[in-house]
Structure formats: C-alpha cells, structure tokens
Amino acid sequence: MNPSDKLIVALDTPSLAEAEKWVKELSSLVKIFKVGKELFTTAGPDAVRMVHAHQCRVFLDLKFHDIPNTVASACEAATRLGVFMMNVHALGGKNMLINAVQAIHKTSAEKNVPAPKLLGVTVLTSLTDRDLKEVGISKKVDQEVEKLAVLVQQSGLDGVVASGQDIGLIRKAAGEKFLIVTPGVRPMWAAHGDQKRIITPKEAMGRGADYIVVGRPITQDKNPSEAAQKILNEMAGN
Ligand code: C5P
Prior knowledge:
- By secondary structure, the chain is of the alpha/beta class.
- α1 (16-26) packs parallel to α3 (45-53) and α9 runs parallel beside α11.
- The chain is 46% helix and 16% strand.
- The chain has helices at 16-26, 37-43, 45-53, 68-81, 94-111, 129-134, 141-154, 167-174, 201-207, 216-219, 224-235, and strands spanning 7-10, 32-36, 57-64, 85-89, 117-121, 159-161, 179-182, 211-214.
- Bound molecules: cytidine-5'-monophosphate.
- Cytidine-5'-monophosphate (C5P) binds next to β8 and α10.
- The site of cytidine-5'-monophosphate has 15 residues, from β8 and α10.
C-alpha cells in the first residue's frame, strides 16, 4: 500500500480557517485528516464537510462513551456525515460496542453510504498502572489493553487506537486483519512535545501499524508539506 494511504494528519486547532489552510497545503500528499474534539467543538460538521470538499477522508476522533442508545445515535449521525473512520471507548462495555456497530451498518445500508471503520479506544496512553488502580482497575496497562482489544474485536469493531508499544501484543491477540491506528508518532528530527512513549514512522510501520496519526510534527513545521513528505519517505523505508 502507498504510504499516503496510511498517514493521517491531526487537524488540532480551534480554527476552521487554519484547518483548511493545512488541508489545502497537504492534500496532494495526505488523503486522511483527523477531526478531533477541539475542531469539532468549534466548527461542528462543517469541519468534516471542509475535508470532504478537498476530496480527502475524515477520521472523526470524538471517542464516544455513553449509554448504548446515545452512542448508537451519535454513530448514526457520523455515518450520515460520511466519515471514513471513527471511534468509541471500549470501557463503554460490550452492549455499547455492539450497538455502535449495528447502528453504523443499519445507517450505511439505509443511506447507501460506506460504513465508517469503527475503532475502540482501549487505555488512553496518558494513563499509568497507578492511574488504573485509582479508578479500580487492578490489571497492568498492557494486560488491560490486551483484554479490551479482544473485547473490541469480539464485539465486531474493525480495530483499535493503540500506542506503538502495544502493536505487538494486540497483533498477537487479535490477528492480522484487525486495524491498528497509532498516534504518538515522532520522526527523529521532530520535537517530542508532550508525547512520552513515542515511536518513529519507520518503527510504527515495521511493527505493523495500519495507519499512523501525526499532528504537530507536520502542522507546526515551518514547511508542513516538506515535513509530510519526509515522513512519507520514512514510512516507505527510505
Ligand atoms: O501533535 P501530535 O502528533 O502529538 O497529535 C497526535 C494526535 O493523536 C492528537 O490529536 C491526539 O489527541 C491524538 N492521540 C494521541 N494519543 C492517543 C490517542 C490520540 O496523541 N493515545
């Protein structure tokens, strides 16, 4: 597969105008953009429509977590918007996960639009073993990630969002067809920012990530398209 089909650029800004500037500059190199809570809370569905207007696809990163009926309705709304990929929290439980999958397939059949790929978020990479203990989870982070990845797969979702460190254990537990989308990716030449457990684009590809998510190393570079091209070269192993 072409590395361009595997790189997702995070549009982390409160400004729709700034997001559009990035999409315009990058759309010859990058085909998928991530719309997250900051941009969606400011600009709403117009952010998704803006990316589509530039013939690119959207990963809607809103990490839904609520009662099954509410999450199912939100998944229907995202399916109607025509997003390519979206996500929910695995800790919402099996019923919530199954309802989300069913809602997506029902809406995509009714509206004759492709079903978005649905990912589960297992354990946020900002959480440690100690944080889990504080909220009553006695398992270590990696054991909890593995357990939730299996639950996500059994519930019929397409894959998970996972740190580079966890790709191996998830592949082992869930097999080759399960999608793994990895954020926290930093090329050697970029600042790490607040990302701690980082991985390079080449390592992420080598470990078997299906997609990588990169934000600031591209959007905050003085030359975003040059930075994106360098990352695509690294992903291709050059
Ligand atoms: O700028 P940066 O490359 O760190 O952006 C990474 C993006 O991926 C952000 O939008 C962030 O919210 C998201 N993300 C992450 N770590 C996770 C899940 C999502 O950094 N575990």
